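Hello,

Our lab assistant flagged a job as stuck in the queue for most of the afternoon. It eventually completed. Since we weren't sure the result was trustworthy after the delay, we are filing this so someone can double-check. Below is the sequence as submitted and the structure that was eventually returned. Let us know if re-running is recommended.
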Amino acid sequence: MRRELEYFFAALRFFTRLPAPAWVGHSAGQLNHAARYFPLVGVIVGTIGAGVTLAATSVWPMSIAVLLGMAATLLATGAFHEDGLADSVDGFGGGWTREDVLRIMKDSRIGSYGAIGIGIALLTKYEALANLGGVFPRGFPPVTPWLTFAATIVAGHSVSRFASTTLIYALDYARDDDSAKSKPLATRMGKGELAVTALSGLAPCALLPWPRAALALALVAVVTWLAARYFVKRIGGYTGDCLGATQQLTEIAFYLGLLCSFT
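-- returned structure --
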């Protein structure tokens, strides 16, 4: 049990800016097993975002509440995954060869592709959540709409992180340099570890109407599959930035999948 707690807190410390107990320590071995708790970290981050959003609705309109909730998740993660998306868009947009893509992705500076990509992603996420916050109260009994909306935010964060974790299970790590930030996460996951990530990643969906959740999950699966194929074609596998990009894209896909079922 203590070892699993170390793995969990290692994941929490790596993927967020939330504090972890001092007794956990630091080791590459912990990070080798930390990815199994990636979706559980998403549950925590999503709960923070949902809590801030719902609290803000008592004072401000839904549009402002969603914006504040998104800001809370950005603060909790240090924009970790958004940075991965920006680096990925820069790399794949500006690089022609595998070497060029990896070199650009590793550059800490953001280019025009990355800036445009992250802007569109954040705006799409905001619009999707703001619209979901408007339709749920009309589509459910009075007791359940806010619980359903909160579960939507939590599930979006957990499911998208599970989708990213499947890349670690299925693909090869594309970089061969030891200086890569996500190198410790490059160890292939076993089926048992993948099952753990699936449990925590998909559990929040149980609080959502199943037909709509199924459509959202189907869209997430398609986006994950397309992203994986693209990564393999361009660079032969995944990098840490690819994981961040997949998390962002599939989170948006999850919200859009829920939203399209109301139209």
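-- support follow-up --
The delay was a queue issue, not a problem with the job. The result is valid. The chain has one domain: 2-260. The two ends are 46 Å apart (CA to CA).
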